[in-house]
Amino acid sequence: MSEKDTGWDFHLRKLSVSGRDSNTANDPASDPSLLPSVKKLHELCKTEKSEDLVARVYPSINKIFQRAAASLSQSRTSNGLLLLAILQFYLDFGEFVLHDADPSLRTFFRSCLSREFADPVVAEATLEFLINNKKKLLASFPNLLPQFFPLLLKLIAWNGERLEKLFLKAFPGLMSPGTFLPLFPSLVDLPILVVALEKVEKTSGPLIGSSIASIQKNTAPKMLLALMDEAYTGSTIEDGGGDSEYEDNSAIDVADPLFLELLKDENDGIAERPWSSPVIAAILQASVNSPYSDKLKAVLGMTPRLLDVYFSIALHTVNNSLICALIPLLMSRFATIFPDKIFSYEVRKRLLEFMLSTFQCSPNFIALLKKPIMDRLGEAYDSPDKTELALQLCWAIGEHGGGGGSHKDEARELFESLELLLYENLSSSRVGMTQEVSLGSDKDTYRRSSQSRLLCFVVTAIAKLATHHRELIPRARVSLGKVARSRISDARVWRRACDFLGLMKDPAICSSILGPSRPTQGTAQKVGSINWSEGSTKMIAHIPFYILGEQEGPPFHDFSFSDIIPRR
């Protein structure tokens, strides 16, 4: 018998003996020599390419998997690496022994990884397994990773930047038509997930080897009570310090649905996460009142990069109907982000870039989404974040003509929302009268500056929207005329309204400057219209603004019109 055959028999006997050993029969992973034997037999099967050898090995390996899966709830040792090795055998040779790996894969995620995602060794091995088998998993089990994306997000949230590169390689497999929308709020809320996991660990002990689901059932009320007590009184239940208004357990649900939603393992669709709820408020307050942990710091830096990948995949592979459905969700979350200045800036920056890129690719989305857009315009003064969102929406409405020339009714409704926003400022003097400018505090000065900036965008959007839809020009003249005649303290707003009124007296120039920067789908570029994307290469593009500025004296450019206008 050859040395290879001897090694083969040795490892095969090892698997058989393990099932008869009373010490390891109910907990196969407790035998440290079992994993090398499984890997060696797998390697020999691949090398020999013999179906007979695979058929001899399969019964023993399958029994070990079944015993290991049955003992997960009582096992004190890690089963992750052993089960991953057996799953690899199933994927490579399942067709030879007619073994469907789908139930085994789901058992691993649902029963093993849910207990061991916090183990860095198991987490890394799991990601490597998903990357190495990405094509096979997507082809044969396309719904597997999308179903368990919340569990994989817990894995990366807890293990941090050390596994980021591996996770980014596996991340595209998490996206599917059924997970595209639920995945977005889960990514944005990764910092909240980390805080929630840390509270679970603090209240119930180490996460490794424990099922979050069982922890939730047994300790959710106590955990929520401790979280609130720490957030609002600075003490914990254990030390007995402070007087918490939540000391009565009857005030807390047995299993708070929002807390369960944060820590779930499987995708069950989009769930509303009201930020006014006690759980979210307590989590945010506790995180703000205490120093950030290393895990939280890592996730705050990692989440924007995950959103980059998510949005990149969305723009290149996701259909328009799903992207259109994402925009309202994006707008609703713009002002509800984990309250860290750098993190919120980076996330909002990406949300705006994606939203504006989407409108650039599909201007008709503005018409389709007029209701949520109008709602956001109505909230423009609720907070600085909502003001910024409304400002960017005003720009998009004007730039893309309210969805294009074929959406005249929607453009009229959007125009009316812009009018309302403008008239509210004029009637209530939100920007402030001239005599009040010197009396305000720094906060009032910032508020007036922010609102003046918004008004500049509103005035511009009104002028551009009327240029796209000429039936709106009379109403635009009335609106801008009211601004020009009003006592607005900010000269920029007044000046811009006067400039646009002057432009509208000459429709040709107005259309050239304020008209669409590119032809609407199905139409040709109008004669005389300027393509502003080429403005950096055409110096003549700057001349209209020199004229509008009503500058006195010699022109600031050093060329003559004969230099740039060809002679016939």
TrEMBL record:
Q: Which residues form the AP-5 complex subunit zeta-1 ARM repeats domain?
A: 30-154
- Where does the source fall among the domains of life? Eukaryota
The segment(s) forming the AP-5 complex subunit zeta-1 C-terminal TPR domain are 302-520
Give the protein's recorded name.
AP-5 complex subunit zeta-1
What organism does the record attribute this protein to?
A: Phaseolus vulgaris
**Lineage, broadest ranks:** Eukaryota, Viridiplantae, Streptophyta, Embryophyta, Tracheophyta
